[in-house]
Write a structure and sequence with these properties.
Length: 473
């Protein structure tokens, strides 16, 4: 549309369409009082009288608003509300909701009677069922902040949502430490697929839930057949925390489901706290299939990404938080998105309860109780420095390919400390410590753990270095 159009022109164009859809009394009551404030980059900001007013609009007319805005502005249209507040605080801003929970169409599943084995001429019954996709609309792409830590995963996710099952990224295996956005990204792909292909059946399930469902099915005659038939009806299967899918029987069932879905062009998405090669107690044939597509590691977010995430979350909460407070949080909490969001929400809640302004001092007070003395002030560089000082070696020696026993042990302790105190990914630790691969780092961590339990002198080395890195106050 013409970029010279003002926010008033854009909103008036929307009202002319809405007026044809909504009955006159409702239109006068709920749309005429709205005041357009700004139109910028396909986003229109409107002022509503109260937060209740905003919630009512969302509940009753969200679909009307979204379709009208897309018609007037374009596919990338966004809506932001500002509510009047009778205080000295600035108006609160809220992004429009991203819609209701996606719904799957009903599917027919073959079911056998629970009593007695069916004979050769007994056919299973057809049962219509409604599969809840179990997707949270908050976990959409619009609420996902992109950075170097997750850029590859997001790019792959968009490709999959455009053509599920028809890209080289099948399965997509997302892995990384806790709180790095694996679940959010996996669900965002599912939500995007449901929006573009509403007839596809999407299901989100955890590895532990799949295992429990399998165990329940095993104990009811003929229900294992129903269980497998159910999963073979899925078009997009998202399995979160697949490392919990342990047990020969559940893995064997999942192997058959995987083969069926993959061969029929269905999309598979997995998340895990470790790389496919590091999964423990998994059948080799299942592990090999998980490596067929694309494996993406989500990294610890950089400072810039952490700051952008905090700004986005404050906006979603409709709360004005000063740049100083956000910078303080982004600097103090470095490990993952979950801790960052938790700290911000706690500060907002605390400020609301005690009727105080959100300041850096308040942020220090609240995060001190939540985060404590941040272990994440420790860096891989600091670990290397302390280890080198303790063993009286140079950093070049530590990072060299030397196989001398004392050098190897120092290098292994540095890897172990980086993993346990910073929770860095295996590949990041390997890269920083002489270009080692993740398998070498995993072996080093395992070796240090074993030696600590059997070698008193070695255990003292590790204890001394840990005290130097995390002093007891």
């Amino acid at each position: 549309m013409d970029r010279n159009n003002t926010h008033i022109d854009v909103w008036n164009n929307c009202l002319r369409i809405i007026e044809q859809i909504v009955e006159p009394k409702k239109f006068d009551m709920w749309f005429k009082p709205i005041v357009p404030l700004e139109f910028k980059e396909q986003t229109i900001t409107i002022e509503v009288p109260s937060d209740f007013y905003r919630e009512y609009l969302e509940d009753l007319y969200l679909d009307v608003l979204q379709k009208t805005l897309k018609r007037v502005i374009g596919a990338g249209a966004k809506l932001v509300y500002k509510t009047k507040v009778v205080t000295t605080q600035p108006p609160m801003a809220f992004p429009a909701s991203h819609g209701n929970v996606p719904v799957n169409k009903s599917v027919s599943v073959n079911t056998y009677p629970t009593a007695g084995n069916p004979g050769p001429f007994v056919f299973p019954g057809l049962k219509k069922i409604q599969i809840n996709p179990r997707l949270n609309p908050v976990y959409c792409f619009d609420n996902l902040v992109e950075g170097e830590c997750n850029k590859m995963g997001i790019t792959a996710g968009h490709s999959i949502s455009d053509a599920p099952g028809n890209t080289p990224f099948n399965p997509l295996f997302l892995f990384g430490g806790p709180g790095l956005g694996k679940t959010h990204l996996a669900q965002a792909i599912g939500i995007a697929i449901k929006k573009k292909y509403p007839d596809l059946v999407v299901l989100y399930v955890t590895g532990n839930e799949f295992k429990t469902q399998y165990m329940d099915a095993v104990h009811i005659r003929n229900k294992l057949t129903d269980f497998i038939a159910f999963y073979m009806k899925i078009d997009v299967l998202i399995v979160d925390d697949i490392q919990d899918l342990i047990g020969q029987g559940s893995q064997s069932a999942f192997f058959n489901i995987f083969n069926h879905l993959h061969e029929n062009g269905k999309q598979l998405i997995f998340t895990s706290d470790r790389a496919p090669a590091d999964l423990q107690n998994f059948e080799e044939r299942l592990l090999s299939r998980m490596k067929w597509g694309l494996s993406v590691e989500l990294q610890v977010p950089t400072y810039t990404t952490r700051l952008e995430m905090l700004k986005a979350r404050a906006f979603r909460e409709g709360v004005v938080v000063s740049e100083d407070v956000l910078v303080y949080l982004a600097t103090r909490i470095k490990s993952n998105f979950r801790e960052l969001e938790g700290a911000l929400i706690s500060i907002i809640a605390y400020a609301t309860l005690i009727h105080k302004e959100i300041t850096v001092e308040l942020a220090e007070q609240v995060t001190g109780k939540i985060v404590g003395e941040e272990k994440n002030d420790i860096t891989i560089d600091k670990v290397q420095k302390i280890v080198c000082e303790y063993f009286n070696i140079t950093r070049d020696t530590l990072l060299s390919k030397s196989r001398k026993r004392n050098i190897v042990q120092a290098r292994q302790i540095a890897m172990y400390m980086s993993r346990s105190l910073i929770n860095c990914s295996l590949s990041t630790i390997g890269t920083e410590l002489g270009g080692k691969d993740h398998a070498t780092v995993l072996h080093a961590c395992s070796t240090v753990s074993d030696l600590m339990s059997t070698d008193k002198t070695f255990r003292q080395y590790v204890s001394d270095i840990e005290k130097m890195l995390v002093p007891v106050r």
